[in-house]
Amino acid sequence: xxxxxxxxxxxxxxxxxxxxxxxxxxxxxxxxxxxxxxxxxxxxxxxxxxxxxxxxxxxxxxxxxxxxxxxxxxxxxxxxxxxxxxxxxxxxxxxxxxxxxxxxxxxxxxxxxxxxxxxxxxxxxxxxxxxxxxxxxxxxxxxxxxxxxxxxxxxxxxxxxxxxxxxxxxxxxxxxxxxxxxxxxxxxxxxxxxxxxxxxxxxxxxxxxxxxxxxxxxxxxxxxxxxxxxxxxxxxxxxxxxxxxxxxxxxxxxxxxxxxxxxxxxxxxxxxxxxxxxxxxxxxxxxxxxxxxxxxxxxxxxxxxxxxxxxxxxxxxxxxxxxxxxxxxxxxxxxxxxxxxxxxxxxxxxxxxxxxxxxxxxxxxxxxxxxxxxxxxxxxxxxxxxxxxxxxxxxxxxxxxxxxxxxxxxxxxxxxxxxxxxxxxxxxxxxxxxxxxxxxxxxxxxxxxxxxxxxxxxxxxxxxxxxxxxxxxxxxxxxxxxxxxxxxxxxxxxxxxxxxxxxxxxxxxxx
Amino acid sequence: xxxxxxxxxxxxxxxxxxxxxxxxxxxxxxxxxxxxxxxxxxxxxxxxxxxxxxxxxxxxxxxxxxxxxxxxxxxxxxxxxxxxxxxxxxxxxxxxxxxxxxxxxxxxxxxxxxxxxxxxxxxxxxxxxxxxxxxxxxxxxxxxxxxxxxxxxxxxxxxxxxxxxxxxxxxxxxxxxxxxxxxxxxxxxxxxxxxxxxxxxxxxxxxxxxxxxxxxxxxxxxxxxxxxxxxxxxxxxxxxxxxxxxxxxxxxxxxxxxxxxxxxxxxxxxxxxxxxxxxxxxxxxxxxxxxxxxxxxxxxxxxxxxxxxxxxxxxxxxxxxxxxxxxxxxxxxxxxxxxxxxxxxxxxxxxxxxxxxxxxxxxxxxxxxxxxxxxxxxxxxxxxxxxxxxxxxxxxxxxxxxxxxxxxxxxxxxxxxxxxxxxxxxxxxxxxxxxxxxxxxxxxxxxxxxxxxxxxxxxxxxxxxxxxxxxxxxxxxxxxxxxxxxxxxxxxxxxxxxxxxxxxxxxxxxx
Amino acid sequence: xxxxxxxxxxxxxxxxxxxxxxxxxxxxxxxxxxxxxxxxxxxxxxxxxxxxxxxxxxxxxxxxxxxxxxxxxxxxxxxxxxxxxxxxxxxxxxxxxxxxxxxxxxxxxxxxxxxxxxxxxxxxxxxxxxxxxxxxxxxxxxxxxxxxxxxxxxxxxxxxxxxxxxxxxxxxxxxxxxxxxxxxxxxxxxxxxxxxxxxxxxxxxxxxxxxxxxxxxxxxxxxxxxxxxxxxxxxxxxxxxxxxxxxxxxxxxxxxxxxxxxxxxxxxxxxxxxxxxxxxxxxxxxxxxxxxxxxxxxxxxxxxxxxxxxxxxxxxxxxxxxxxxxxxxxxxxxxxxxxxxxxxxxxxxxxxxxxxxxxxxxxxxxxxxxxxxxxxxxxxxxxxxxxxxxxxxxxxxxxxxxxxxxxxxxxxxxxxxxxxxxxxxxxxxxxxxxxxxxxxxxxxxxxxxxxxxxxxxxxxxxxxxxxxxxxxxxxxxxxxxxxxxxxxxxxxxxxxxxxxxxxxxxxxxxx
Amino acid sequence: xxxxxxxxxxxxxxxxxxxxxxxxxxxxxxxxxxxxxxxxxxxxxxxxxxxxxxxxxxxxxxxxxxxxxxxxxxxxxxxxxxxxxxxxxxxxxxxxxxxxxxxxxxxxxxxxxxxxxxxxxxxxxxxxxxxxxxxxxxxxxxxxxxxxxxxxxxxxxxxxxxxxxxxxxxxxxxxxxxxxxxxxxxxxxxxxxxxxxxxxxxxxxxxxxxxxxxxxxxxxxxxxxxxxxxxxxxxxxxxxxxxxxxxxxxxxxxxxxxxxxxxxxxxxxxxxxxxxxxxxxxxxxxxxxxxxxxxxxxxxxxxxxxxxxxxxxxxxxxxxxxxxxxxxxxxxxxxxxxxxxxxxxxxxxxxxxxxxxxxxxxxxxxxxxxxxxxxxxxxxxxxxxxxxxxxxxxxxxxxxxxxxxxxxxxxxxxxxxxxxxxxxxxxxxxxxxxxxxxxxxxxxxxxxxxxxxxxxxxxxxxxxxxxxxxxxxxxxxxxxxxxxxxxxxxxxxxxxxxxxxxxxxxxxxxx
Lengths: 511, 511, 511, 511
Prior knowledge:
Chain A contains 16 helices and 26 strands.
């Protein structure tokens, strides 16, 4: 493999721009940004509704970028960092597969450059500060039953989903109910991914809401005087990570918010840097287009300051069998409604039947062939037009109820929205707290266009059910919670960790 | 500052021996060890009983090494890695002070090269595997009330000292009591610090005891098939970290077990490497000599395979005021009983009265003058003799009761030992489980030679009270718990985090 | 007031039939029953859907019985015993009001003859036996997360609604989640109210299900060998209590199952005794007819062995204002569907507007006038025909799903039933455990004919939502839980206990 | 058996003085007390240190009273009410044995007249009021970690020893740690036993301390406005219960505070009444004389207003074998130090070796022979002198530290007292809260004169260790806690409840 310095030089970056982690990984120092995002071609990789195994968006994004580079374009792929929970659990790593992979995969799948650890530390520092404040007299008059900021750990650990802390008497904190989420579900992760520079990072951290006081008003991290220390813990983590594909293509792998509960794509700073230094930027957004692409366009791109040129929609035989062609069509239509041109990439796997998809599409064979397997797709990507004139699903100055309605009917295909009384009250609280103009970042199952995971295909005749609403003041999100969304996964009966090992000469195997 | 490559070259190490973290930090690849530890001069830095603010052992060790290097010796200092809990809490960082400091101090005090994060992850993976095993039917028949392996976090967070986990019903784990310790108190940290290579690391991890089954037999990590994955998480962490002092002297900063509850000094691999590549190795061991030096000699050196040449005993006016000269004498006497030559270093601070210490000693002014302030001390160190023929405080084949008695009477100055009935039972269990030949690693207050923190000076006429005994199978320790020892610190009313900040250009301040 | 011996003699009972509690209260020894229930006239007092303050069913039942006695009939009223929770909470006592009251009211509202204490003790003995079984090795392999038998207390105490027990280590039980319900919600209360003699009581207690084992099979009290001791604790409690109205009419006040979560009427043994010893028995059943009357007819009367002669349906101006006339009509229609003749009693209160109810009815003024105020009603009651040929809402040999459907559509006016997946699974389990032939005792809000408390009147176009299903093996009930039903009330901001007092000469005031 | 009316008439009480519970039990209405306690002879029955099975103090007290009556004296025995926990647990009932028993034993051992239920209800009403206060804003600023008032249940239920309550969110109370004690350990029980009339009862209830506020000041039940309702719940319970021995002797069986944690004898009102209506009153006090007799003399008699005439000290072969003759001598000496004449009663059991006790004593055979077996003892009792001029172990106006010292050295035979720092602080708090003049009611093991249950006989050379101190404001006790004292017993592996049963004709067996 090439050294990370060589990879960086392909992006016009010199040794002073790098903070290296060995020979194969580096963090990139943040430049002084202007107001304008870069002008490179931006390609969103999204997908139809996924099957449980996933449709290979990451693999296709890597293979497509390799293909673009083979065709002479200065291309870079922008991906999310894997979370260790799934690595040791069921799903495994997040570095692509076959001949379309990131390098060094084991390191990226484990500690990488420590970003998830930094998010965990910063998040839990705020939690510790919160309990410390309660312990020393609770001057802010927080209601211990209405604290919404939890703790996080980068593990799959179901025993921490519902806990009681602060037991043991008067020197041990205040008793209260708490929970641990997985680090990727931390608001700090979303904040890191959206912040454009150090000052923005600190400001957003200070706006994180930890809970309500006894008069029902929100209390923020800045009231606890801890956002500076949190930002200090995240100062390296804000720098994008540079690695490469196994074909040597530059890869920015940075931040990892989930797409079902958060906004689901890599960082604003990574994309900004890539748009300035490359000709084509290929960026993945999680799960199906109704979640990942929607949040990419409505949230990420508005924060970034520009929209993509086109979307590649990944489909597989497996997902088509589960969801039907109508599901793919629904995703294409919703992207058209945004005004974004689309290309369907049929990600071919061993043993697939011959291609008979009744829809314009490009087959790709990146797992088997690397960049060679996506040359046709790359060609069409290079023929795409200028950045699209995207029409967001909702305007920020609409009411929260209207924004949610727009997503439900315009994106998911619902007939309307049903709120529990609690959700309705919470929505009114969000507005009264001054968050009426926030993004709406829906937490919803990825297994269906609807909020019911047992309804594959293209569900019709349903109402989106909103059970509760919470507020992420740092990210700037109002989050309607639709159905039961797991924020701390569990391990399976025979988790991956049973297979992972370290050889006597220090080589990690089994990931 | 010099680049880390230049620093490494002073130790005869080339680029291939390093895994760099930016320009100023590196991990050193483990060489193939022979059976013999290196032959360099080994200087132990220990102290009299400390006052609450600490006596500056780290600062003296750094300054002394700087002085040795000024005098032309190829010297290296071996120190422990700071824990982030105290950094954000009361005590602050652990990188020396004034002109005797490590570089880059902020980075070392925060994430450094991620070792503590790796220990946290490996530890909590075992905890998650344990709860996962309970959830899936508990085939090993573990008694949920007798699980001794807890969780860890690198925070000061008193609300996690006593918790209940596994609530929420049949899909959420099994209800049980649990706690979080600070990462420095993790058995995984002790294991990492003692392991001589990857195979040893994995073997030790597999021997960690998670609790007892319902028939009262210990159950280990290897029964849960998780030691390979834990070792994989620790593969980088086992490599010693290289940094430098602000005078440019090489510094190995690796692992951080506390000296009150664990064995309290930096890693075996760091010292081995240093003994092979340098002429003088200056190594710090935590708290007073009855804890740090005792464990250094009885545990660390037996694992290392050799003993130091002499001990520097740090004293301050502050500690002499609090504890009296008798306390210092007690520490010198106990070191003499081990057969180790000693030098008293009086660490002078601004405003100290003129030197009138009625005892042979060498004043040092390293905070104010760096290496220049320890030249006299360095001269005496270089005049010291060959490695001492140390007589350990106990032989490993003595009974556990006899070993504890030897420490109580021979090291702490007690009249004997008093066990609670529970402690006596546990001690018998340790022997019956096959750990009769283990090290005895006493958990005791650092504030007194006795087990009562309110007895400064040189207490006499007391019995060491052993409240309970626990077994660290991976570290190979039987731990008699004497008094109340905090394994998860709390934050103060106005913790350091209120002062720590990140500037808009990314500079961390306030640590 | 007359002595209790005089009251008893009116029912043909002598001193040997009584176990007295002072001069005014007695328990009646159980006679040897024949197979035939008595032949007296049985009058059910039920109501339209209630307003929050209640419609005075108890008061009307008392006043009606007083009126019947004034007219020369040997009449007795059968009522439930008050629970102390509401006495100290918001609702107050349950002994009627004004001139239609029970005597001695304070005693009946407090400890009375100790029946609720006996139920509490017997219930909690089973709970203690259950935890004791877990502690001593759990030979029955119970799943600690699937225990359904909770603890009870005769208090309004919301802090006990969700608790964790068994903390403190290996000598203190097994950690698990638990809750306290109010005693009136205890299955033991339902068992006591339905048992026909001591043998039946013990058999039913033994069939109470405490939870599931790890293979998913139910475990009963008899497996814990505790039903004999529970029955011993209840031996006095099974004897009906005799008191009197303030007009001197005999009153049997015995057992107190709630009508929203249990079957909601006084005991089988009290009614049997009354039917043998009196000419007219007036019995109250809780809440509206869709709950109280339905369960009275479908459960209580089938256990009793006969049906009532007619039903008096109590209405008030307050309830008519809240629910409308249509609600009253719905209750009358559902009683007609059972085949039971009805009389509407309009319970007049001070300040009510003049009577303009567009429906045949009889005004009663029992609060103001005692029995005098119900003479017209009593006259119509005495003109009623023989016991009705009631058609139950469901046959016991129908499937559980069909029984629930019959109640939903035939009694509540729903369009159908919607089950959560969990409820459907639980229903199948009930059948597989052999309880397919059990009574269906719906737990539903009393505030609406539907399962949504916010829908007063006569709701249409709704489906009954069944969230979960539980099994009361001792009572013989399958309970579909519809909506959130409180089984442990809370106290209000200014509870009744602030007003209750004891004078220096021992007089209780304020109840 | 005689009717309870006949038994009462022997004490000069008529039907109007009774509130009957069937034919065999009654409560006695409280007369208007004068200032002077009655003048009857008062005999204290105490014992040497007990063996685990108990030495039969209750049985001897019953037999002695029967013998006194046989000799023509108007005698009454005053005993404590049994707790149901031990009845269903290991120890069994508390109504004597063999031919020296109370009647009706089963009823007295189970619900009796409901006093323990009333104590449970009143106690838990205060607990519910406390949590209700926290829920509604905590206007009194209570510190949730320093609440000392727990909940009670009349069960042996170890799973309730350490619990967490108030879980479930903002409508479910405030999370906090709590515990259940057995009802006999309730402060309300001690209050009931000490109160002289209704007004005193209510005043004492109002002084019960529920915990400390955040400024460290005690908060009482009266602040919660609940003492009136508590007193109302206890209005019947304050009346002494009358039953009889199987020889027909009147027995007052009232209140049941334990002697290890409370003051351990029956009620002040029962003894007052007995002293007025009888010629000889025989009263039992729990455990050995260092606990039961000490508290009887120092606490009970000072509340009563007079002292006993003599003490009967029960010994058995079993206890003499376990503790030695020296133990018996120690108990006699401590009673002499109080100034109280003593008689040793050797309670003979089947299979005891021939009597060779080297000490003046009277053999009694009451289990085998009833009153006949205690005639010799009765004779000596009747020869005893006037009420003793008892010198209490401490004066009430001494300091708390001095009072505890007096008990330790003067009663237990200790060399002195050792306090934990926490205990010392708490003792100072008690004084600062105005309780310096309170009784000292030591909580100590009954198995030894010392505080170490493993030291039988007559321990010397020990210091009394005080671990913590708590304050019972209603009882007027400062309680030094010495060692681990169980306030909630557990059930055994095969508890009594497995043997208890109810026959089909309603007869309780197996108690």
